[in-house]
Design a protein that fits this description.
Layout (H helix, E strand, L loop, with lengths): L10 E5 L7 E4 H11 L2 E6 L6 E5 L1 H18 L5 E6 L5 H17 L2 E7 L8 H14 L4 E3 L4 E3 L2 E8 L4
Parallel strand pairs: 1-4, 5-6
Antiparallel strand pairs: 1-2, 3-4, 6-9, 7-9, 8-9
Length: 167
């Protein structure tokens, strides 16, 4: 943004609260008005003809912009992904134990990445791994929804489950 003498356009459109009558002024007139008020002439939009300017306290404006950006960053949600690993022949007790952990993760708002890792000849049991992941998704239906169906990548089959939005 350009301020005060940095504005090169011969005429500017003044807008804002500090301007008595909004309209098109010569740059020198606008600078004089800003100087009388002890404020800065700030070019808000340079792409239009004539450029749009405001008479404001530039330092205060910068501070408010930084504060707004900081608030936006604080309010943005960070996606946390928790991984739960299975083997193709996972026992019922282990399955329930991992299911309980996944429910906790989903309730906290984290995504769950469930994966079945096939070691050595266990790759022969791809169908068992897929059944296991589908059962896992069905058990978690009220806490989260499957973002993608089980997908085999190399020696591991993965599935993402996102938490259900609370109303």
């Amino acid at each position: 943004m350009r301020i005060n003498e940095e504005i090169t356009a011969p005429k500017v459109r003044l807008v804002g609260d500090n301007v008595g009558e909004q309209g098109i002024y010569s740059t020198s007139e606008a600078l004089k008005k800003a100087d009388e008020l002890g404020l800065d002439l700030v070019e808000i939009t340079a792409k239009v003809d004539p450029p749009v300017c405001k008479i404001i306290d530039y330092q205060k404006y910068l501070y408010q912009q930084k504060r707004k950006a900081k608030e936006m960053k604080a309010n943005s949600t960070k996606v946390v992904i928790k991984e739960i690993r299975f083997g193709p022949n996972t026992d019922e007790h282990d399955f329930q134990f991992k299911l309980k952990h996944a429910i906790g993760f989903l309730q906290e708002g984290a995504k769950v990445k469930a994966s079945v890792f096939f070691k050595g000849r266990a790759i022969l049991y791809v169908d068992q791994g897929e059944k296991l992941l589908l059962r896992f998704a069905v058990e978690l239906e009220e806490y989260g929804r499957a973002e993608q169906m089980p997908k085999l990548e190399g020696k591991r089959m993965m599935m993402m489950i996102a938490p259900v939005k609370k109303k």
